[in-house]
Amino acid sequence: MAENKMLKFVSVPRDMPEKRLATARREDFQEIYAEFARDKAAEQSSRCSQCGVPYCQTHCPLHNNIPDWLRLTAEGRLQEAYEVSQATNTFPEICGRICPQDRLCEGNCVIEQSGHGTVTIGSVEKYITDTAWEEGWVKPILPARERPESVGIIGAGPGGLAAADYLRRAGVQVTVYDRYDRVGGLMTYGIPGFKLEKEVVDRRTRQFEDSGVEFVLNCKVGEDISFDAIRGKHDAVLIATGVYKSRDLPDSDHGGVIRAIDYLTASNRKNFGDDVPEYDSGELNAAGKKVVVIGGGDTAMDCVRTAIRQGATSVKCLYRRDRANMPGSQREVANAEEEGVELVWLSAPKGFECDANGVTGVHVHRMRLGTPDATGRRMPEKIEGADYLEEADLVVKALGFEPEDLPTLWGVEGLEVTRWGTVRAEFGTGATSLDGVFAVGDIVRGASLVVWAIRDGRDSASAIVNYLDQSASAGVAAE
User: Which of 1, 158, 131, 161 is nearest to 69 (CA)?
Assistant: First the structure.
């Protein structure tokens, strides 16, 4: 009887890939986790309990077939494991690096709930896809047949690229327009290299180019090309711009008070070797400064960990709730603390102290958690008389993002928006008020997680294929 290679969670403890020492990783922007070795990946995969109802899969936005590729990895069938992983996820190697597994798949693992420690799903996902690249299993997309229809995608971020992948596999001709000079959106300019080294994105870009996807970069819709021109050139259009308008604080227009997206973009550009005057001047550089980051999500963690690497003299993060109620990944918080960041819980900005050279400090409200709101989450309340001044030479606002006013920016009539300013789109398909125009969910909901953008991009692409099929059928019937 063949040996059962699974259900080893009782005898095999949970183990993560080796993590570089904090003192070493503070000095560069390289990824902090090493790669699993083949035997270690198989060992950790063998801990999976192969649940009849896999909570890891149901709590994954992409509903990845996690138990299946864990079993294949445990059995040494890595190419099959990669193929199963790729079937539902355009970027498994990227999700394996940056997806908040502690809140999604790993956080809902059955053996984690039973006290045995979760399966290290993300690390195995990263390993099998990196192995696929090394072994040459990742090939350009070759559809069974080419279709004559073309789709224009506005936005080369994770949602737009996931849609491009799906559409090319269906044989549709794809052109992707983006305002930036590199492909990847958030993955290229928002996420630091210590979480996602940029060659990982670049090799996917090369795969898309080899698959026939055309990229039109440095192209601002409404300025360099009109939305109507894109619409007239293609049989359908997908809006996949993401959300880049930063939420703001009152009276925060001071020197040294900057937006997270500007700060992270400058850092990433500098690491690419670009000329970044705002970085060189010190405007978007934390070197030698007391840094305060305001916010509690993953973007805030990206900012504080970037500031440490740039040589800040101190880095503090203000968040108005406590550790248990912060929205960011607990794993990222732990990494930040190891690297020397101080998390200041139950603290919210009241205003700024400035002199002729810019900001010198943040006036801070001490907070406490009060009664729950309609969602059950306890609301922060100010503690009267407990304010204080936090010294700062650089303040980074990491408060989340809002949608841009696309109909106005692009001069589009008839593109309806919701009361929140997001593009109004049909749930599940992304169909908008304009015929043949769709929008991926990350702009509909404003979700910031890459994994949600991938899911929504694939869903919208599937709806576009159905739309093209119906249009083709209607054309045949008319003839």
Answer: 131
Backbone dihedral region for residue 430 (phi beyond 0: left; psi -120 to 50: alpha; all else: beta) = left
d(CA 256, CA 264): 15
- CA distances for 81 relative to 65, 125, 130, angstroms: 10, 9, 12
Residues of the chain scoring pLDDT < 50:
1-2, 445-448
DSSP assignment of 426-455 equals -TTT-B-SSTTEEE-HHHHH----HHHHHH
Question: Do the Cβ atoms of 160 and 179 come closer than 8 Å?
Answer: no
Find the angle CA(184)-CA(334)-CA(365) to the nearest 5 degrees: 95
- Tell me if residue 238 falls in helix, strand or coil: strand
Domain 248-397 has CATH 3.30.460.10: no
* pTM of model > 0.85: yes
Fold adopted by 150-244+402-478: FAD/NAD(P)-binding domain (3.50.50)
Beta strands in 158-227 (DSSP E): 173-177, 214-216
Q: 21: exposed, middle or buried (C-beta count within 10 Å: 0-12, 13-18, 19+)?
A: exposed
pLDDT in tens, 375-417: 788 899 999 999 999 999 999 999 988 888 888 889 999 999 9
Residues of each domain in the chain carrying CATH 3.50.50.60: 150-244+402-478, 248-397
From-to residues of CATH 1.10.1060.10 in the chain: 22-135
**Quick check: helix, strand or coil at residue 175?**
strand
Report the topology of domain 22-135. Answer: Fumarate Reductase Iron-sulfur Protein; Chain B, domain 2 (1.10.1060)
Beta pairing class for 378-382 and 358-372: antiparallel
Distance CA 150, CA 287 (A): 47
